């Protein structure tokens, strides 16, 4: 492993991309500071890489001011470094998954052997396996199975009738969710948006009211990711209204209600409404206490553990490192919790430590996240930017080694 002194350069930071987009508009730093609502000193620190430009709320403020997509600032999608074989394998199936998404709603024109091979019990097992890969953040395995699985489910949804057709569309919606997560983790946001649309459309064909509501959780996330907070809020409010109107307080409905309150809390956090974020988090906490257990209804994890994890991630979204670190000390992850969620939690913990000025602990948390989900951690925009900033301001052996794996040095 090369020492940092042997490295000839460094990857472009979010701040450098911000400076390039600003120059494209022929704006001064002062103009950008005024339009985005930040100080001139902050803009200079971001552009020079002395301050980490990793918080989505801040990135969204600059993206709105410059009328660009947030990914133009974050630089995603990223290309895995040349010696990262697993990373190269993970991205190898992106084009095939995209083609499968584009075929949604088109006549499948199945060959005779495809039509004869439609087998819903077998498809259930294959979808369950795809979800296991998703929860394990096994991106290479996900990409390997998804193209053929999506094709076979599209054929089944077209050929089946009645209850079998509705089940086929339910399985298809779940597989599209796996595709959405696969593409999102790899930084292909436009393709992930396309997959989300397919989730919503497929869910509508199931005739299951709760399945249709659950799909809108992802739909709200699409608007949230580009800073359309009013639109995201409208989707969330409509879902909560529908769930509140149900007479039977079945566990699935309570779980979905809690999950939507968490999404509302995130929407508030990114809109810099800390009071709203806290209120929705407390409502989610009440729903989790009502459930009394961790559930995974419609592949949306919710329960006491999930609420505790979000109790850390929400302060991180708002740059409140001290509160996030304090809450993180009380989080106990069950042994059966998925590697994907474990990784994401330790990413949040690492960022919390960084905001709190505890850089050694931040590095330790990022390394732990990488052990649980290597590719998802290496492709995470916040990890890449934060580690890059740490390296630019304090180069150290183990930190630089992580930076090399991330491709930020």
From TrEMBL:
Where do the HTH cro/C1-type domain residues begin and end? 18-73
Taxonomically, the superkingdom here is Bacteria
InterPro entries attached here?
Answer: Cro/C1-type_HTH, Lambda_DNA-bd_dom_sf
In terms of SMART domains, this protein maps to: HTH_XRE
Signal peptide range: none
Q: What protein am I looking at? A: Helix-turn-helix domain-containing protein
